[in-house]
């Protein structure tokens, strides 16, 4: 609150409240120091957010706060009244304070981290690494893929001619070998991998055979080519086998 224009609480002797012309704080328009009051309120224990509304004359007409559900609303109101009086010399009518509570509000960063962790838990097979490098023989490449399934990891290497089509097939084959090793009670074999164009984009399309007991299934998967065709080939194999592998977890 600025010394020149302090925020005033509405009292019994004041003029009628002008609700139709209330304003809230913004960085560009804050003549009554509303932001300072909001920052003070949000610093109180259990308060997650706060919004202070004043009239053009600087009278506080509304205070809205969001708190955690373990805070008693009456205690929150008393804390706000005490803090505003102690820090800003502002006496507030408790009736202008409204308190809403929520069961679970977390910082954006924590929510994003939790979302990533939950997403990772849903992935049956995790893509650990991909390495593409020239082979000892001229005009050939060596592709190494590493995958993880539950608490196990496996890697496989495949060699292919240095063309896009053969690199895609080699990467898909290496991914299939990893899956075959990670699920010893089943069998995985690559039927084929190819590049296709659709919707003005390039995709890797793979077909994979999954054998589990007496059950045999031909599965297909796709992945858009973004970083590299080899990476998309591995992702296409995982796309094809994700549900199949999940059923055998």
Helix-strand layout with pairing:
Blueprint: E1 8-9, E2 23-24, H1 34-42, E3 47-54, E4 59-68, H2 73-88, E5 97-102, H3 108-122, E6 125-134, E7 140-149, E8 152-161, H4 164-182, E9 187-198, E10 201-212, E11 215-224, H5 229-246
Parallel strand pairs: 1-4, 4-5
Antiparallel strand pairs: 2-3, 3-4, 6-7, 7-8, 9-10, 10-11
Helix pairs in contact: 4-5
Description of the molecule:
The protein is of the alpha+beta class. The protein has two domains: 8-103, 2-Layer Sandwich (Alpha-Beta Plaits); 124-246, Double Stranded RNA Binding Domain, CATH 3.30.160.270. Helix content is 31%, strand content 37%. The strands form three sheets. Strands 1, 2, 3, 4 and 5 form a five-stranded mixed beta sheet that branches. Strands 6-7-8 form a three-stranded antiparallel beta sheet, covered by helices on one side. Strand 7 (140-149) and strand 8 form a beta hairpin. Helix 4 (164-182) packs parallel to helix 5 (229-246).
Summed up, what is this model?
This protein has 249 residues and is of the alpha+beta class.
Nearest-integer average pLDDT = 80
The main β sheet shows up as: 5 strands, mixed
CATH architecture title of the largest domain: 2-Layer Sandwich
Distance between the termini: 61 Å
Structural class assignment: alpha+beta
Specify the number of helices: 5
| Shape category | elongated
* Number of discrete domains: 2
- CATH class of the largest domain equals Alpha Beta
Helix content: 25-40%
Q: Would you identify the CATH H-level superfamily of the largest domain? A: Alpha-isopropylmalate synthase LeuA, regulatory domain
CATH third-tier fold name of the largest domain: Double Stranded RNA Binding Domain
């Amino acid at each position: 609150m600025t010394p020149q224009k302090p925020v005033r609480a509405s009292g019994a002797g004041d003029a009628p409240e002008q609700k139709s012309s209330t304003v809230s704080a913004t960085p560009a328009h804050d003549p009554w120091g509303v932001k300072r009051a909001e920052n003070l309120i949000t610093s109180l224990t259990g308060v997650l957010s706060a919004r202070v509304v004043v009239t053009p004359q600087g009278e506080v007409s509304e205070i809205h706060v969001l708190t955690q559900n373990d805070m008693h609303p009456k205690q929150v109101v008393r804390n706000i009244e005490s803090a505003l009086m102690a820090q800003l010399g502002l006496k507030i009518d408790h009736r202008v304070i409204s308190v809403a509570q929520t069961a679970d509000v977390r910082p954006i960063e924590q929510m994003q981290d939790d979302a990533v962790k939950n997403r990772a838990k849903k992935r049956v097979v995790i893509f650990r690494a991909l390495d593409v490098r020239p082979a000892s023989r001229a005009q050939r490449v060596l592709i190494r893929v590493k995958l993880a399934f539950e608490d196990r990891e496996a890697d496989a290497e495949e060699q292919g001619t240095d063309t896009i089509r053969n690199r895609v097939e080699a990467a898909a084959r290496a991914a299939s070998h990893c899956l075959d090793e990670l699920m010893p009670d089943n069998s995985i074999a690559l039927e084929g991998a190819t590049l296709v164009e659709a919707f003005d984009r390039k995709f890797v399309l793979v077909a994979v055979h999954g054998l589990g007991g007496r059950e045999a299934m031909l599965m297909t998967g796709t992945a858009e080519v973004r970083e590299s065709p080899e990476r998309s080939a591995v992702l296409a194999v995982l796309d094809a086998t994700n549900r199949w592998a999940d059923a055998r977890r």
